[in-house]
Amino acid sequence: MMQYMLFFVLYLGAVHSAPLPSSFSKFNKQRTELLEAGVPEVLEAPADVPTFKHIGRLDNVQEGTEVLVEGTFTGRFDIDLKCESGSFCVPLHICVRPAEQAFVFNAKFPSGIYDLEERRYFFLEKLTFFRVSIVVRLTHFEVTVNDHWTKMYEHRMNFEQAKQIMVKGDVSLDLLEIYQPESMEEPIDTNEITKKL
């Protein structure tokens, strides 16, 4: 074992003492010239600016509430059910990523930390119609795409915290509607009760 350690140390010494290739010295010279000219050493990546962004209000989110989004897309886009403005909280984040062939589902906690994402295979083609229905259930969001494919995404936080819907990205929005569930109880006619007595 000692022989192998000695060989490794000698090998590392040989690597460190090896002369630098000439291309490195050319690079170093160019770097110095750029710094002297005032070009910053670390360039910031360009901001990812979505081509479309719409924020709508969600009131009285309850079990049975449905959010319906329809349109066409040319690239990546997001559908978020968000908490109050200024909060990091996102009870449901859906990201459509055609380049990765993925639907990505996630949630963002009030601390600003995302949960583990869940991915599903992406089956739509660009420039085609899409219809995403999000129905709030007691334990999960039921997400249906084009009345064909469904994903159950379990709640990571109280769904009643959702106060906004945001759609952004490379998308053309045709419809964004919110439907509240119909009351299950029928009004009681007190006149009918007294007639039977």
UniProtKB/TrEMBL annotation:
PROSITE patterns: GALECTIN. Residues 53-179 form the Galectin domain. Keywords: Lectin, Signal. It comes from the Eukaryota. GO terms for molecular function: carbohydrate binding; galactoside binding. Residues 1-17 form the signal peptide. This is Galectin. It comes from Caenorhabditis brenneri.
